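User: Structure tokens for both sequences below?

Assistant:
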Amino acid sequence: MGKLELAVVGDTPYIERLAKRIGQNAPEYLEITRCYKKEEMSDFFAVHVPDILLYEKEEALPESRSNHTVEIMLTDTAGSDPKTGFAIFRYQNGAEILRQVFQIYEKAARENLICWCKTADLSMTVFYALGGYEMQLPFSMAYAAIYGEKGKTLYINLTEFSGIQAFLGEEDGQNFSDLIYAVRQRKEKFLLCLQGILHQTESFDYIQSPGCPQDLYEIQAEDLSMLLTLLREKTNYEMVVWNCAAMNQAVMRIMEHCGRVFCLVKENTFGTYRKEEFAQFLEKEQAKKIKDKVQFIVPQTGTGSFIPGGDIAAQLKDSTFAKQVRTLIS
């Protein structure tokens, strides 16, 4: 799971004690970084892109910082900072200041922090293909099948027209579009809807892709936050494996919340071009949260093939690239 970064800026004794207290009360999804002297701040912001900036004196901050960072000033009197609108009365204990930092961040960034709080022990992996998707489905399903030997696993397919129905011999049924509808009903109908949507193999449960590709582009950030929260609170899954195709806002959000991002690459000229372009995208500011999670994989398919409608669990675990998948899990 990715972390939020809270940068505490300043070198006064007070700010040093506050940073220590915040660190003592910080949950595991929050990373505390420090920047001390004024002359070091430009170098600090060249390396770090914090989600939250907590500082004591505004005039000490350089102009070359991210516009996406939520800035919060510590003040001697209660009231809002006239520039950013976000200020906290400094003479409070560290735990109370941290609570207010989270409240301000949720309001400013429209980020539902309940997702970060509740899914800390729910492992998630996402697969994304560059330069061809034909091996993405069986490779990611092999990952789910082999991980299913260790713990209860859910496979969510967000690749449109992936061929999963023919591969598993399934008829049309409810899919991820129906699940998002249940999420929007919040907790009341979630489990009832989930029972009707889930399909099973011997090793893992799975959800079919949305009935219409357009549904992928209409998924909101709060939908995903609520979905992850409900999976954690209402189910006993230990691993969620996402199979994603076209890069869009929803897929970016999923990647941010996953601990690992596997990008399948074809070992040819076109695959190399796609990999180079994606690597350039990862350097952009909006992709910095997923950059360090990405691992490029060239599937070692061998000469084996899959037989639709056969013993899928055995085929996935004994496929020619199953050994490669096991090394990713170990």
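Moving on to the next sequence.
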Amino acid sequence: MKKQLPYFVAFFVVPVLVVMWWWGLFSGASVGVEQSTDYTYAYLEAQGPYSKLSSKQAEVHFELKKQGLESGAAITLVMSDPRNTSYKELMARTGFIIDQRDQVLPPLQVAKLPKQKVLVASVKAHPLFAYGKTYSAILDYCKAHDMKLKLPTVEIVEHSVLRVEMPLESDSAL
């Protein structure tokens, strides 16, 4: 058994740790207060488990391509807190950032988010880890500063980096 341990470590444990490192398991989310940019995005409304948002986002991508429009970074506005909302009643908007001059046709909808002061958490990691890391960082910040989570949060995914923005100003427009 002792002779096989180095082989087990070399050929199983080390490769698994390398893959987990590559996926961002050991990355921490950075947190800070910033001024967001203004976003114009095409989206569809989604209701139900947030784990199903990627299929709704694929619908938006398909519609944008069908309309001959370029899609930017993926964007999701999380409208419901999954900690106190039934998974069947969770609400979100999901889609892609677009050029503000684009003319988008139904079934897609278009909305704009103005510049605003936001709490930002970001991390470069696989989605399996990224969402937990960013929201954990935001909740820790809120707890440390005696704040509550404010919705909607804005999730932007670009180049394997998840950026979650929580509005700090009381009048966040949708």
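User: Anything stand out in the second?

Assistant: The helical segments are 5-22, 53-66, 127-144.
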